[in-house]
Design brief:
Elements: H1 4-22, E1 26-31, E2 36-41, E3 48-53, H2 57-62, H3 69-85, E4 92-94, H4 103-113
Parallel strand pairs: 1-4
Antiparallel strand pairs: 1-2, 2-3
Helix pairs in contact: 3-4
Length: 118
């Protein structure tokens, strides 16, 4: 029986294969208990075009706890701004096998509200 992490990575692999087939720029999200990270990755998968996380000093000033929906919303807003600054409007959302719920959903909705299309 596979453990929880292996099951998540298997789900993530299916999504990533589909995104790679479409040759789309992807917004990849990683979630840990205490932080959330987002990266905009090039279509070839070899280059990070923009990144944001709750580890950044200016985000930590605003949000004391990096492991909640408020922090995820701040990261979503920040990644959308940075992606637009890099000239990226449309991305494919890669939730890395995490359920589209809670913090992952909060990050996605904040990114959409700030002009990123997916």
């Amino acid at each position: 029986m596979p453990d929880k992490k292996q099951a998540r990575l298997r789900r993530a692999a299916k999504t990533r294969a589909r995104i790679a087939e479409q040759k789309a720029i992807r917004l990849s999200v990683n979630r840990t208990n205490s932080h959330i990270y987002a990266q905009v990755i090039s279509a070839c998968g070899g280059k990070v075009l923009a990144a944001a996380s709750t580890l950044e000093a200016d985000i930590r000033k605003d949000v004391p706890n990096g492991g909640n929906q408020a922090a995820a919303s701040v990261v979503g807003k920040r990644i959308a701004e940075r992606a637009k600054a890099a000239g990226i409007e449309t991305v494919a959302f890669d939730r890395s096998g995490f359920q589209y719920h809670g913090r992952v959903k909060a990050l996605a909705e904040a990114a959409r509200e700030n002009g990123l299309k997916f």
